[in-house]
Amino acid sequence: MLMRTDPFREFDRLAQLVTGGSAPGTWSKPSPMPMDAYRSGDEYVVVFDLPGVSADAIDLDVERNVLTVKAERRPAALAEGVEMQVAERPLGVFSRQLFLGDTLDTERIEAAYDNGVLTLRIPVAAQAKPRKISISAPADSPQQIDA
């Protein structure tokens, strides 16, 4: 039960519809924090690509049912006398928010970061898992009917 939101995505979509593609002089660029999300058994797995971001530049917060991921991609330190010729990689602070359903256990979220990939594992809450309900018969009712 994950929902994602990007408040500017609709504006971009509308601009592309109005201009018949991308606006003149602009190009469509991917999100600086692309993600995949899927359910695997009793947990949701959310994977973010964050190349060039160090683990200490990633911040995860959960407030109520909103998970916020912030990451800062800092410029590379250039040696003295080196002049940048092309700089196309996005720099700065990027963030994404996921609205987590009430059926997820936000107290037990696990995060791992390896080779520029942030993986979050969000378990389904115990009360949301399907369970078998047993049916009991009253103690004073007969168990068998004699014919």
UniProtKB/TrEMBL annotation:
Occurrences of domain SHSP (ranges): 26-138
Coiled-coil ranges per UniProt: none
CDD domains with a match to the protein in the record: ACD_sHsps-like
Any single Pfam family the record assigns to this protein: HSP20
PROSITE patterns: SHSP (PS01031)
Top-rank taxon, per record: Bacteria
PANTHER family per UniProt: HEAT-SHOCK PROTEIN 20 FAMILY MEMBER
Family: Belongs to the small heat shock protein (HSP20) family.
Name this polypeptide is given: Hsp20/alpha crystallin family protein
Organism annotation: Kribbella koreensis
